[in-house]
Design a protein that fits this description.
single chain, 3-stranded antiparallel β-sheet, binds pyridoxal-5'-phosphate, disordered C terminus, about 40% helix, alpha/beta, Aspartate Aminotransferase, domain 2, about 400 residues, 7-stranded mixed β-sheet, Aspartate Aminotransferase, domain 1
Length: about 400
């Protein structure tokens, strides 16, 4: 899905938005209680179930990914409930904070940032819980702060074997980038946000709820109002929302999901995987150490920990000389790593874009995908050396 001649946002999200999707938002508004809106919402809901690979309800909230996760947590739990939270990065840590804010009793399973969570640790804790006191297991699938993809399938298996606990999944940077087969893996609650794999601007959150999750909803006593999913479910049956929705984002979502459906799930996942592999191969070829191991690499975000050159200097050169925005490290990794959206959502654009330095354009395509600047850089030996050299104070110009 090419982008044309725009400043290139290669942070893990928001992602660039395809022109067709941008234009969809420029339409005049319609009433959100109209038949026209309901028709759009019906279509969107059908697409969402397809993307989530589920027959479960997939509810749409005017909220970011955090709001969707918080909704998932507070709708199925009660104060004092014991929850097992996996954390190997910033977002795992965030779910601990949310749980604590609502008076839940948190037990942590941790791994170092950059390493995957160990499914055996979940299995051991859950097996030891013969009293079935653990009410939920909370896992971040793709940990955006480190570029690690946790083994959700294996963790979900351990949760299913426990029999009582629900599994609540942060799929904010995995949904739409790799397969999250909700029904096959028995995922009870899965949360995501619009500014990542969905290729639309921030503002919408999505929560899928299994029958078991709805059963837990009936006994959950945590306080909720705007994020009470009951009214969303009731309204969704009539293809409407309990509160005024961001109508323009619904226009955008309909188009974006339609594009994804045209491409097909396999096409979407293999495209992300191909670009992830290309990004990682390019970083290796440039002797830039990858932060996450090959076997646990996120399809959406690649984190790099450069040696001998400042991560922030690379980010600065990429921003100033190439118009490419990369993300920095978070918390203790600030200044130590940079992170880039290898592929999430929109995968490239048709033209190279450093017009300020170079009057020429550099079309570059690769196997049907438009190759993003890393690939182009990598295809010209010495090119990235130039970037590194520039970080160290030397200059570089447009390659001929
Ligand atoms: C894995 C993950 N979880 C949660 C969030 C939070 O989402 P939001 O910023 O939309 O609230 C993000 C955002 O980057 C994320 O990457």
């Amino acid at each position: 899905m090419p982008m044309d001649d725009k400043f290139m946002l290669m942070i893990p999200g928001p992602t660039p938005v395809p022109e067709r999707v941008l234009l969809a938002q420029a339409q005049h508004l319609i009433g959100h209680r109209s038949g026209e809106f309901s028709q759009i919402m019906g279509e969107i809901t059908d697409h969402l179930k397809w993307l989530h690979q589920t027959q479960n309800d997939v509810l749409i909230l005017a909220a970011s990914g955090t709001g969707a996760m918080e909704a998932g947590i507070i709708n199925v739990l009660s104060a004092g409930d014991r929850v097992l939270v996996g954390s190997n990065g910033k977002f795992g840590d965030r779910w601990v904070k949310v749980c604590e804010a609502f008076g839940l009793t948190v037990e942590l399973i941790e791994a170092e940032w950059g390493q995957p969570l160990d499914p055996a640790a979940f299995e051991a804790t859950l097996t030891a819980d013969t009293a079935k006191a653990i009410k939920a297991v909370i896992v971040t699938h793709s940990e955006t702060s480190s570029g690690v993809l946790n083994d959700l399938e294996a963790i979900a298996k351990a949760v299913k074997a426990h029999g009582e606990a629900l599994i609540i999944v942060d799929a904010v940077t995995s949904l739409g980038a790799c397969s999250v087969p909700i029904d096959d893996w028995g995922l009870d609650i899965v949360a995501s946000g619009s500014q990542k794999g969905y290729m639309i601007p921030p503002g919408l959150g999505f929560v899928s709820m299994s029958d078991r999750a709805w059963a837990a909803y009936e006994t959950s006593t945590l306080p909720k109002f705007y994020l009470d999913l009951g009214p969303y479910r009731k309204s969704a049956v009539k293809n409407t929302t309990p509160f005024t929705p961001p109508v323009s984002l619904f226009f955008a979502l309909k188009v974006a999901l339609g594009m994804m459906r045209e491409e097909g799930l396999e096409g979407i996942f293999s495209r992300h995987q191909r670009l992830q592999q290309a990004t990682r191969a390019a970083m290796k070829a440039l002797n830039l150490p990858l932060f996450a191991p090959d076997g646990s690499a996120s399809p959406a975000v690649t984190a790099v920990m450069p040696e001998g050159v400042e991560a922030e200097a690379i980010r600065s050169v990429m921003r100033k000389q190439f118009d490419i925005a990369l993300a920095g490290g978070q918390d203790h990794l600030k200044g130590q790593i940079f992170r880039m959206r290898a592929s999430l959502g929109v995968c490239g654009r048709s033209r190279h874009h450093h017009r300020r330095q170079c009057p020429r354009s550099h079309p570059h395509s690769f196997g049907g995908d438009r190759l993003y600047p890393w690939g182009w850089v990598g295809s010209s030996p010495g090119r990235f050396d130039g970037v590194l050299g520039n970080c160290k104070g030397t200059s570089f110009g447009c390659p001929r």
